[in-house]
Amino acid sequence: MSRPEVIVHPTAELLVAATAARLITKLIDTQVEQGVASLVLTGGRAGIGVLEHINRSPARDAVEWEYVDVYWGDERFLPDGDPDRNETQARRALLDHVPVDPGRVHPMAPPDGKFGADVEAAAAHYAEVLATTASLATDIAVPYFDVLLLGVGEEGHTASLFPNTPYVQEIERTVVGVHDCPKPPPTRISLTLPAIQTASEVWLVTTGTAKAEPVAATLGGAKPVDIPVAGAYGQDRTLWLLDLDAASAIATGA
Ligand SMILES: O=C(O)[C@H](O)[C@@H](O)[C@H](O)[C@H](O)COP(=O)(O)O
């Protein structure tokens, strides 16, 4: 478990640009060290904004995209190609524009896929996908994640783990089907906190005053059951990448 490091950028635009640059550099450094880098994507405006920015960056092609393993931290359980799917958004923002190896891109199943509307089966299958390339470095059956990106919800959710739900308290499974989410769509698939916590680096990327409270609460020691993002940390690094607005309640402890 690593202690949170907070980096504040003056505006949302700068935060997204700086995070894109940071991620490009991190992927390059990781590939130099180990050949393949493993990246877990998030949904949400900030996370997708970072991918869009990478796509526009002149340094984009310095990453060997064919040697990046791509996973998702959560998915909105919507049909394949739906514009609100995190996968669709990530593909449009970046993955469709770089030479990723389709065999290394691991989306979560949609309701019109192999498992139909059975979100539990789709979640269990994703757990199997993660288990097939599991790292020996942890008892938990997931791959070694170099960077796991997450967003933050106004009430403190992260991935699709919402406050005071059984999903945020899950300790056995690595992936869960999530029902009755307050943020649409109501049905989702999510990594659980134990799976998230295996990552080497967890980067929490968020902007705006609406996120100031959960950010401050987390840094003030909130419990994950109340503020799920408080349970999101990396083994080696936990990086809070904020704009001034999202950081605005930290000093007062909200
Ligand atoms: O699929 C999703 O909706 C998410 O993965 C979710 O956890 C998101 O990251 C936050 O809700 C922040 O979203 P914004 O950056 O759009 O506020």
From TrEMBL:
EC assignment: 3.1.1.31
Gene3D superfamilies, sorted: 3.40.50.1360
Pathway named in the protein's UniProt entry: Carbohydrate degradation; pentose phosphate pathway; D-ribulose 5-phosphate from D-glucose 6-phosphate (oxidative stage): step 2/3
Gene Ontology biological-process annotations: carbohydrate metabolic process; pentose-phosphate shunt
Catalytic activity: 6-phospho-D-glucono-1,5-lactone + H2O = 6-phospho-D-gluconate + H(+)
EC supergroup of this enzyme: hydrolase
Entry coiled-coil feature ranges: none
UniProt domain Glucosamine/galactosamine-6-phosphate isomerase: residue ranges: 11-240
Keywords: Hydrolase
Gene Ontology terms for molecular function: 6-phosphogluconolactonase activity
InterPro entries: 6-phosphogluconolactonase_DevB, 6PGL, Glc/Gal-6P_isomerase, NagB/RpiA_transferase-like
Heme recorded as keyword: no
Similarity annotation: Belongs to the glucosamine/galactosamine-6-phosphate isomerase family. 6-phosphogluconolactonase subfamily.
Record's function text: Hydrolysis of 6-phosphogluconolactone to 6-phosphogluconate.
Name the UniProt record assigns to this protein: 6-phosphogluconolactonase
Gene: pgl
